[in-house]
């Protein structure tokens, strides 16, 4: 999609101890992919692009917007190193993002200015039938719920079936724990009770996701 909407795009790839490069103009390859040098032990990808003025009226890039999205990707893909560089001005603006803690570190970042009421985030990982799930939960002393959902790194601001399942499972587990440990008292906690002060990140990786809307 980025290539189709760019007047120019350069793709530099480091793998198999070689540096490869290919350039596109308006979505079409200028020349085939070629090896341009040696790169012992280096791996990664660099994308350089210029948005097409034929498609966009405004092609002024907002550094903060790009940084926010790339930081999400760095959290969601543990161990990946992402570098955002803005060379439009005399002094280069550069941000390097690398989080080995994944979504657990993500919730810590989201709650960096809040007071936690549990010592560390609860981290859950599972994989079955080619579907991977990661969830990190941390409660703070606020009254607000903040749950971020992602499918294959794509954010779902309005949630989805994975969020509904997550909320239902959380309510059942909390109520089950309460019943087992407070047998003399009748406790019925609502979903809102369980999620008060909750910050969570839910990341699902599926081979064939179905989106009702991506706009």
UniProtKB/TrEMBL annotation:
Protein name: DNA topoisomerase (ATP-hydrolyzing)
Species assigned in the record: Bradyrhizobium sp. PZHK8
Family designation: Belongs to the type II topoisomerase GyrB family.
Enzyme Commission no: 5.6.2.2
Tagged with keyword Protease: no
Catalytic activity: ATP-dependent breakage, passage and rejoining of double-stranded DNA
Native organism taxonomy: Bacteria, Pseudomonadati, Pseudomonadota, Alphaproteobacteria, Hyphomicrobiales
GO molecular function list: ATP binding; DNA binding; DNA topoisomerase type II (double strand cut, ATP-hydrolyzing) activity
Record's keyword terms, sorted: ATP-binding, DNA-binding, Isomerase, Nucleotide-binding, Topoisomerase
Entry-linked CDD domains: TopoII_Trans_DNA_gyrase
Gene Ontology BP annotations: DNA topological change
Domain DNA topoisomerase type IIA subunit B intervals: 102-214
Keyword match ATP-binding: yes
Entries under InterPro entries matching the protein: HATPase_C_sf, Ribosomal_Su5_D2-typ_SF, Ribsml_uS5_D2-typ_fold_subgr, Topo_IIA, Topo_IIA_B, Topo_IIA_bsu_dom2
Broad EC category: isomerase
């Amino acid at each position: 999609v980025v290539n189709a909407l760019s007047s120019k795009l350069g793709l530099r790839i480091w793998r198999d101890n070689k540096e490869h490069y290919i350039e596109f103009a308006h979505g079409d390859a200028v020349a085939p992919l070629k090896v341009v040098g040696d790169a012992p032990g280096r791996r990664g990808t660099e994308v350089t692009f210029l948005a097409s003025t034929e498609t966009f009226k405004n092609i002024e890039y907002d550094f903060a917007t790009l940084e926010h999205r790339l930081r999400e990707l760095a959290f969601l893909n543990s161990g990946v190193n992402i570098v955002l560089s803005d060379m439009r001005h005399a002094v280069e603006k550069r941000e390097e993002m690398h989080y080995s803690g994944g979504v657990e570190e993500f919730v810590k970042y989201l709650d960096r200015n809040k007071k936690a009421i549990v010592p560390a985030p609860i981290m859950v990982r599972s994989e079955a039938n080619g579907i991977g799930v990661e969830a990190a939960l941390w409660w703070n002393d606020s009254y607000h719920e903040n749950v971020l959902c992602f499918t294959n790194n794509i954010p779902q601001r309005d949630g989805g079936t994975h969020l509904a399942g997550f909320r239902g499972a959380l309510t059942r587990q909390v109520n089950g724990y309460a019943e087992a440990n407070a047998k003399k008292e009748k406790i019925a906690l609502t979903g809102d009770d369980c999620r008060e002060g909750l910050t969570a990140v839910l990341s699902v990786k599926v081979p064939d996701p179905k989106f009702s809307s991506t706009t």
